[in-house]
Design goal:
The chain has 317 residues and is an alpha/beta fold. The protein has two domains: 222 residues, Malonyl-Coenzyme A Acyl Carrier Protein, domain 2; 68 residues, Alpha-Beta Plaits (2-Layer Sandwich). Helix content is 42%, strand content 16%. It contains 14 helices and eleven strands. The strands form two sheets. The chain has a six-stranded mixed sheet. A five-stranded mixed sheet has the order 6-3-5-4-9. α13 links the parallel β10 and β11. α10 runs antiparallel to α11. The C terminus is likely disordered.
């Protein structure tokens, strides 16, 4: 069977990874190496509660990426490497680094650049996001059509245990509140501590701020195929990866596209590395195993040994 690493979007939380850090010297060594690259020690962030603003403005992304990299290093020490990789939102950036298309040090530095982004004007119209629990036939784009200030952001696809569909809409907070008042029940669930509108045109100032830094980053052809969440496509060149970095901040993403690409690579088991709800709520066309804690890692290693994963040959630089 063939193995893929699956990476989720920002799902930051203090304390995540602490048990792995304490048990595995590889995690400690990986964190120490990352600290030399960026001057920010991931260990110092593990047990620290971050404000919503800090979590969004670089530190949360950095903490999550560092944990995923460390988990991948532990798996590599056990002789496990994937045949493909795919990520949703932030996971696209992390997956690009795991594939070898960008250097880890460059990606971590890029994530921390968000701290330098100027604060928005206090008088600006407030932004936000809402988790959408939809009927199977409903689509985010249809809900946003003819509703100014609302944008389809994340299509998570069909739910795993119920007859429905999960997604995220970004936009202005007042427009989200109007939508919540219009639709029945708990269809619209506005996330209270989020003041951004990811994967929408409202993020153009952030895209413009990061554009010169992305332009200066070196990109290489990935060593393994990378599944895109922007469209149903498998990425194999440096140019394709760089295009994702340029577009993803203001473009909608889809777990359905991500799954499609991974299926095209022949994925038969997915390891969801680090904090991500992807395997817990939505349907996947192949088995997935979450790896976030020491217990998770033990289960993942046992699953791989039992199933008999045989990763495809990995190209080395």
């Amino acid at each position: 069977m063939t193995l893929a690493y699956v990476l989720g979007g920002l799902n930051d939380g203090s304390g995540l990874g602490l048990d792995l850090y304490e048990k595995y010297s590889r995690v400690r060594n990986s964190f120490a190496e990352m600290a030399t690259w960026t001057g920010v020690d991931p260990r110092e962030l593990i047990g620290v509660p971050l404000s919503a603003a800090d979590s969004l403005n670089g530190l949360g992304q950095y903490r999550q990426a560092a944990l995923v990299f460390a988990i991948a290093d532990v798996l590599r020490d056990h002789g496990i490497e994937p045949s493909a990789v795919g990520g949703l939102s932030l996971g696209s950036f992390i997956g690009a680094a795991l594939s070898g298309a960008v250097e880890r040090s460059d990606l971590l530095s890029l994530l921390l650049r968000r701290r330098e982004m100027p604060d928005p004007d206090p008088g600006e119209r407030r932004q936000g996001i809402a988790l959408m629990l939809l009927e199977p036939q409903m689509r985010l784009g249809e809900l946003c059509r003819d509703r100014p200030g609302l944008y389809p952001a994340v299509d998570m696809g069909p739910l795993a245990t119920e007859n429905g569909r999960l997604g995220v809409i970004s936009g202005y907070r007042d427009a989200l509140e109007a939508l919540a008042a219009e639709l029945p029940g708990e269809t619209v669930n506005i996330i209270g501590d989020r003041d951004d509108a990811p994967h929408s045109p409202l993020q153009q100032p952030l895209a413009d701020f990061l554009a010169p830094h992305i332009a200066a980053m070196p990109f290489s052809d990935p060593r393994i195929p990378v599944s895109s969440c922007l469209e149903a496509k498998v990425l194999t060149t440096a140019g394709e990866i760089k295009d994702v970095f340029r577009r993803i901040i203001t473009s909608p993403v889809s777990a359905v596209h991500l799954q499609d690409g991974l299926q095209r690579t022949g994925t038969e088991l997915g390891l969801v590395l680090g904090p991500a709800p992807a395997d817990r709520f939505v349907h996947w066309p192949f088995p997935v195993v979450h790896v976030e804690t020491t217990d998770d890692l033990t289960i993942a290693l046992e699953s791989i040994m039992d199933i008999g994963i045989d990763p495809l040959p990995v190209k080395r630089p």
